[in-house]
């Protein structure tokens, strides 16, 4: 399985910036899909939970890469949010996965 990890500089959920303590984006390619699986784990300064649902997520990595796609909120507890990709992640290439 090929995969990549990105450190997140900014996270925007439905066009609303999330003020972050830290965030990480994990991308993994598997044999059972048309596109890589991805998940963003974010630790927000605001501990208010996000409502369960499907969201447009836009991410800028620490090195300036702009990535984005639709995601489903898996968990939101005390400012820790897990958003799992619900489709392709724009901006990731085959060369990113090692």
Characterization of this structure:
This protein has strands at residues 2-13, 16-18, 20-29, 37-44, 54-61, 66-77, 80-85. The mean pLDDT is 95. Strand 1 and strand 2 form a beta hairpin. The chain contains no helices and seven strands. A six-stranded antiparallel β-barrel has the order 1-3-4-7-6-5. It has 98 residues and is an all-beta fold. The radius of gyration is 13 Å and the shape is globular. 0% of the residues lie in helices and 60% in strands.
As a percent range, the share of helical residues equals: under 10%
Mean pLDDT over the full residue set: 95
Low-confidence segments, given as residue ranges, are none
Major sheet characteristics: 6 strands, antiparallel, barrel
Q: In angstroms, what is the radius of gyration?
A: 13 Å
Structure classification = mainly beta
Total count of strands: 7
- What is the number of helical segments per DSSP (H or I, 4+ residues)? 0
> Widest sheet: strand order?
1-3-4-7-6-5
- What is the string of SSEs from the N terminus onward? EEEEEEE
Label the overall shape.
globular
Distance between the termini: 9 Å
- Strand content bin: over 45%
Write the layout of secondary structure elements.
Elements (H helix, E strand, L loop, with lengths): L1 E12 L2 E3 L1 E10 L7 E8 L9 E8 L4 E12 L2 E6 L13
What distinguishing features does this structure have?
60% strand; 98 residues; mainly beta; six-stranded antiparallel β-barrel
Write a brief structural summary:
With 98 residues, the protein is mostly beta strands.
């Amino acid at each position: 399985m090929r995969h990549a990890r990105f450190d997140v500089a900014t996270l925007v959920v439905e066009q609303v910036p999330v003020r972050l303590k830290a965030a990480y984006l994990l991308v993994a390619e598997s044999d059972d899909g048309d596109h890589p699986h991805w998940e963003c784990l974010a630790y927000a300064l605001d501990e208010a939970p996000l409502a369960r649902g499907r969201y447009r997520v836009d991410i800028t990595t620490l090195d300036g890469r702009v990535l984005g796609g639709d995601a489903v909120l898996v968990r939101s507890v005390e400012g820790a949010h897990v958003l799992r990709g619900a489709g392709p992640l724009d901006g990731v290439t085959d060369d990113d996965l090692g």
